[in-house]
Amino acid sequence: EGRETRLRVVLRVRPLTCTETRRGDQQVVHSLGDGAVHVSAARHDATFGFSAVFDAGASQEAVFEGSGMRQLVEQAIDGFSCTVFAFGQTGSGKTYTLMGPLAQSETQPVTPALLGLMQRSFTCLLDQSQSRSSDLALSASYLEIYNEQVRDLLSPGPPCALPLRWSKTRGFYVENQLSVDFESLEAIVSLLLQGSQRRRTSAHALNRHSSRSHALLTIHIRSRAVSTCPALGEGLGGPELIVGVKTAPGCACPSKQGTLCFVDLAGSERVKETGSSGELSVEANSINRSLLALGHCISLLAKPRGKWTHIPYRDSKLTRLLARSLGGSGITLMVACISPSSHCLSETLSTLHYASQAWRVTTRP
Ligand code: ADP
Ligand code: MG
User: Whose CA is nearest to atom 20 of ligand 1?
Assistant: First the structure.
């Protein structure tokens, strides 16, 4: 607590897709083990290191266990602000890593083995909530940033823009966002599905279901260590009566409020490669602008603390909402996603470059 902590950065290399194989793309990314990865192509030969590297054969479970996601869930229960964000070009596997291949299948449920970091975290959270001697109150909010507008994905009706404000105590926050209580896995998965269906996506050359917005799902966790509240224990006739009762007046027993935020970023891609025009190119431009702002903040934060100048969080809504996770009091896991194909080389190198910089960023949880 309060100590400088490095962002945890892991890399996931997805398998070559059918299209890439048919086209005869070379595999240019090779995992060397121990968190190292090697990129070798005609004029490029470079090695990068991360907390962990997951190659094409890695299962969703291996990513959950090996990325430190389970610990992140526990830290959120302990009252920290935890964030996991997936980063990489369109079609690199961000949504797959976070949610599994569910975007396509509303009717047929996903095989449990393919469930992503989000569903696995929910299960872990609800299991912990049952087994701990604490009483957890859970709620979720789900937002997207589309064309520099923050929209609520849970409130009914057509999406309307919500104001993003700043206060001394809360930092940047979204006003009037809906927060929905839940108590079961079915309930939170259904909120996730509802919200994801409203998310702005459009098909373009790189991905049939490309996300055109940044999506942030936040789980708010309030916990009270019920059984350890001595003030409540007195005269109430046994611990079973304490459950569900709020802290006794004037009692200093620990009540913690943590958050667990999942950020699915829109892909970084150049307009010409996706064949985007008109509305799509406006989208691509605002996506690129906010990712550029994110990259800029990360590169400044990667400098030693003493050398920090002003960090321009205000340059985009995305960086404002991620300010705490990147440079503040949060605990952050970044999952950088890349394709192994020679065709994606320049985007892959740029993702690897950002991810290496992010690995030098520290926060003070
Ligand atoms: P992004 O969200 O980064 O744009 P997606 O997660 O939608 O990319 O992935 C693009 C395509 O690649 C999808 O069809 C997805 O099912 C597939 N894919 C991504 N990662 C993997 C993986 N690790 N294993 C198998 N298929 C994957
Ligand atoms: Mg996606």
Answer: 93
pLDDT tens, position by position, 118-150: 999 999 999 988 887 667 899 999 999 988 899
Q: What is d(CA 115, CA 117) in angstroms, rounded to the nearest whole number?
A: 7
pLDDT of the residue at 252: 54
Ligand at minimal distance from the CA of 14 is 1
Q: Are strands 171-174 and 164-167 parallel, antiparallel or unpaired?
A: antiparallel
- Give 4's DSSP letter: -
Burial class (CB in 10 A: 0-12, 13-18, 19+), 288: middle
pLDDT (mean) for 1-7:
81
What is the 8-class DSSP label of residue 365?
-
Within 8 A by CB and 6+ apart from 127, the residues are: none
Reading the block at residue 106, the tokens are 């509303």
User: Is 307 annotated as a binding-site member?
Assistant: no
Of all atoms in ligand 1, which is nearest to the CA of residue 101? 16
Map tokens 């109150």 to a residue. Answer: 137
- Asked if residue 339 lies in contact with residue 91, where contact means CB atoms within 8 angstroms, the answer is yes
Report the residue count for the chain: 365
DSSP H or E run through 347: helix 345-358
Distance 161 CA to ligand 2 centre (A): 22
- Starting from the CA of residue 267, give the closest ligand: 1
Mutate to test the pocket of ligand 1, among 14, 19, 60 (most ligand atoms within 8 A of CB): 14
Structure token digits, residue 131? 């087994």
Q: In this structure, which amino acid lies at residue 138?
A: L
pLDDT on residue 77: 93
- Domains of the chain by residue range: 7-104+111-201+213-224+259-363
Q: Which CATH superfamily is domain 7-104+111-201+213-224+259-363 in?
A: Kinesin motor domain (3.40.850.10)
Examine the pLDDT at 269 and tell me if it is beyond 70: no
pLDDT: which is higher, 358 or 230: 358
List the structure tokens of 75.
Answer: 């830290």
